[in-house]
Design goal:
Blueprint (H helix, E strand, L loop, with lengths): L2 H11 L3 H8 L5 H14 L2 H14 L5 H17 L7 H13 L3 H17 L3 H8 L9 H17 L3 H18 L2 H14 L4 E5 L2 E5 L1 H8 L4 E4 L4 E4 L2 E4 L4 H13 L4 E2 H9 L6 H18 L4 E4 L3 E5 L3 E5 L7 H7 L7 H8 L3 H13 L4 E3 L6 E3 L20
Parallel strand pairs: 3-9
Antiparallel strand pairs: 1-2, 1-9, 3-4, 4-5, 6-8, 7-8, 10-11
Helix pairs in contact: 1-2, 1-3, 2-3, 3-4, 3-5, 4-5, 5-6, 5-7, 6-7, 7-8, 7-9, 8-9, 9-10, 9-11, 10-11, 13-14, 13-15, 17-18
């Protein structure tokens, strides 16, 4: 490796992409292409970065498997930054194995962290935790130790474990200080700010107020029955009933929780659960069936009783946990609110729905001026500025039902 390549690589490791480009911008050999691609990714031109890294991978000879594996890892990182979550995971795994076989433990660990962060984005927390458990961060350089702690914090946040998240971010802050990479320090500070930002609204007794993640954790540990509209579940007494795949039951549970301790009329429940303005005896009969199913699902957490005008939720204390900002397509906004650009295929994967459904939602939102896109075809990406004062992604612990 010549002196310019070595100097450019050191500049990139220190978070100085312009310094790296000053050394290799006019070169088209394989190593220079790879470094240029990484530099462009750090600057933010992800489309050009991906093209350069792919060219570098093709330019390396058949005997340069280690260099090609590093290019695969770089491309995977660019894909993750682009929120292209459909990139081939098996290809990244093969690159990691190659790196380990050649003794490049640092880049092998980096490859594993990329796979884990993808799992975290699509809500596969158990798989992310399992893969994280096999990594010992102690011998890694400060930059990767920072990434490790950010992943630990991310999993803890989405599992509503605020103290564990804060401890991990404290360690990440210290590691980032030793790494001395401004972009990495900024990512840690952003994560710390999320913990001091409302992630949900508490609705109880006709009033509402914002909650931090710490307060959500305390609420879920309390004796109250929590109807959780962030993750479509009902929690209480250390138990949780998931209703994400039963939207009608959850709609009824939410309406009853919002009105508690009062009852809700049958007409209001029919309108809320079935989205009907008018009702007849068949709808009332259907409501009785769905309430019966809800009653069975909530046992022994709570009971639902009939009143002269409708139904009432019976429990010692009932609260509703809602998203900080709610509208028709709130789940799509929750992912776009991270400030990154997402492809429609990545959103579909994260939401657990079809790409066509997501594309229709995005087109509707774009027509209303609420989201914007750039690029064309498969390179098209969608984004929206984050809602000021809200961290909407922290309670998205799993793929949610489509809007």
């Amino acid at each position: 490796m010549d002196a310019l390549i070595t100097a450019a690589a050191r500049a990139l490791a220190a978070g100085d992409p312009l310094g790296a480009l000053n050394r290799v911008a006019l070169r088209d050999d394989a190593a220079a292409l790879a470094l240029r691609g990484i530099a462009m990714a750090q600057i933010g031109d992800l489309v050009l970065a991906r093209t350069l890294v792919q060219r570098a991978a093709r330019a390396f000879g058949p005997k340069e498997s280690l260099a090609r594996a590093r290019c695969v890892v770089a491309e995977a990182e660019i894909a993750l930054a682009s929120r292209d979550l459909g990139w081939p995971v098996k290809q990244l795994d093969m690159a990691r194995v190659t790196l380990e076989a050649h003794g490049d433990g640092v880049n092998a660990a980096h490859a594993r962290y990329l796979a884990i962060r993808r799992l975290l984005l699509i809500g596969q927390l158990d798989d992310a935790q399992q893969q994280l458990s096999v990594i010992d961060p102690a011998p890694l350089p400060p930059a990767l130790r920072t990434v490790h702690e950010l992943v630990v914090a991310g999993i803890a946040m989405r599992r509503v474990q605020s103290q564990s998240a804060r401890a991990a971010l404290t360690r990440a802050q210290e590691a980032a200080r030793h790494a001395a990479i401004p972009a990495l320090s900024a990512e840690v500070e952003h994560a710390i700010n999320l913990l001091n930002t409302p992630v949900a609204r508490l609705i109880a007794h006709g009033q509402e107020r914002p909650l931090l993640l710490d307060e959500v954790e305390a609420l879920l540990a309390s004796t109250a029955l929590v109807v959780d509209a962030c993750r479509y579940s009902v929690c209480g007494a250390g138990m949780s009933m998931a209703l994400g795949t039963r939207p009608v039951l959850f709609a009824i549970a939410r309406a009853l929780a919002e009105a508690w301790p009062a009852d809700v009329s049958r007409e209001a429940l029919i309108a809320h659960a079935f989205r009907l303005k008018l009702s007849d005896e068949s709808h009332r009969a259907r409501l009785r069936v769905e309430v019966g199913r809800l009653r069975a699902a909530l046992e022994p957490l709570a009971s639902v009783i009939a009143t002269p005008r409708g139904f009432e939720l019976v429990a010692q204390d009932v609260v509703l946990l809602a998203q900080p900002v709610e509208e028709k397509y709130a789940t799509v906004f929750a992912f776009l609110a991270d400030g990154e650009s997402w492809s429609s295929s990545a959103l579909a994967l994260a939401l657990g729905t079809s790409q066509r459904t997501v594309q229709r939602i995005l087109d509707t939102l774009a027509a209303d001026g609420k989201v914007q896109s750039f690029g064309r075809g498969r390179a098209r990406r969608w984004m929206t500025p984050p809602v000021p004062g809200f961290a909407t992604t922290l309670l998205l612990t799993a793929p949610l039902p489509s809007a």
